[in-house]
Design brief:
Blueprint lengths: L1 E3 L2 H13 L4 E6 L5 H13 L2 E6 L19 H10 L4 E3 L3 H4 L18 H4 L3 H16 L3 E5 L3 H13 L5 E5 L19 H22 L5 H14 L4 E9 L13 E9 L2 E8 L11
Parallel strand pairs: 1-4, 2-3, 2-5, 3-4, 5-6
Antiparallel strand pairs: 7-8, 8-9
The site of pantoate (PAF) has 10 residues, from strand 2 and helix 6.
Length: about 290
């Protein structure tokens, strides 16, 4: 696996591979890799000839009171996992390679970026959109792969790729879950044993809303109430939002006709967890642009 650490190296790697006739897949991450990331890599490997994974804990997407400093950084373990999985290249830049001196540009996707998670984390999606634009522009991959666990992020990145006419096709990859349903996340390692058990209620709550939907309940308010009840029964009281939205625009909808998604963000102990479930399909099929 090649390890690239600056803008020139990643650009040269991509140019060389394109010249050699290879299609390129790109998997941007913040490291602390888990089975969800490996699924992104596997999907890229099945759809493209050469995959590059990036690991960059992006400071601009963390608020001042958030977990940037304690975000898990386990680069040797990550490299090992990527080598084992047959990844072709790792882009592992330092902060100065992404945000050089005098950097002052930012990308905002509004109003999408200030709704839902954006309300709780002001500036978060501006940080995400900015770094993803830089990365997509450096790699210019044929396809870039993002987890659908971060559903709002996925919709925002699709929007920006379309609006800015970026070359990469943005592909959403279904969420990988623990056996009890908890969505894989690098932040799950913050949970105490007791909180880890309670966190399983997040998936149970969304699944209950989905069952009610499948059984004929189409009213957003009712579906949200069903999910909320299961969260509170599991003593998850700090519910930042639980909301049924259009799966394509993320705008609020009163009734789910064709394309709904139920999304939630909760605090379990001090850990903020998010999850979602599509309401229109039997499973989370992977939407792509
Ligand atoms: O989902 C993530 O890990 C990050 O938000 C991303 C897309 C790598 C941007 O920093």
């Amino acid at each position: 696996m090649e390890i690239l650490t600056n803008r020139d190296e990643i650009r040269a790697w991509a140019v060389e591979n394109r010249k050699a006739g290879h299609s390129i897949g790109f998997v941007p991450t913040m490291g602390a890799l888990h089975a969800g990331h490996l699924e992104l890599l596997r999907t890229s490997q099945t759809q493209t000839d050469r995959t590059v994974v990036s690991i960059f804990v992006n400071p601009s997407q963390f608020g001042p009171a958030e977990d940037f400093n304690r975000y898990p950084r386990v680069i040797e373990q990550d490299k090992h996992m990527l080598r084992q999985a047959g990844c072709h290249a790792l882009f592992y830049p330092g902060v100065a390679a992404i945000y050089p001196q005098h950097f002052q540009t930012s990308v905002t996707v509004e109003p999408l970026g200030s709704d839902l998670c954006g309300r709780e984390r002001p500036g978060h999606f501006q940080g995400v959109a900015t770094v993803v634009t830089i990365l997509l522009n450096l790699v210019r991959a044929d396809q870039a792969f993002f987890g659908l666990k971060d559903y709002q992020q996925f919709v925002i990145i699709q929007r920006l790729a379309q609006d800015l006419n970026l070359e990469s096709k943005i592909v959403g990859v279904p969420t990988i879950r623990e056996p009890d349903g908890l969505a894989m996340s690098s932040r799950n390692r913050y949970l105490s044993q007791e909180d880890r058990q309670r966190a399983a209620a997040i998936h149970a709550a969304l699944a209950a809303a989905k069952s009610a939907f499948t059984a004929g309940e189409k009213r957003s308010g009712r579906l949200e109430a069903i999910a909320r009840r299961i969260l509170t029964e599991a003593s998850i009281h700090r519910i930042q939002y639980i909301s049924v939205r259009s799966a394509t625009t993320l705008l609020p909808i009163n009734t789910v006709h064709t394309d709904g998604v139920i999304l939630t963000a909760v605090k379990v102990g001090e850990t903020r967890l998010i999850d979602n479930m599509l309401l229109n399909l039997p499973d989370q099929a992977s939407p792509s642009s």
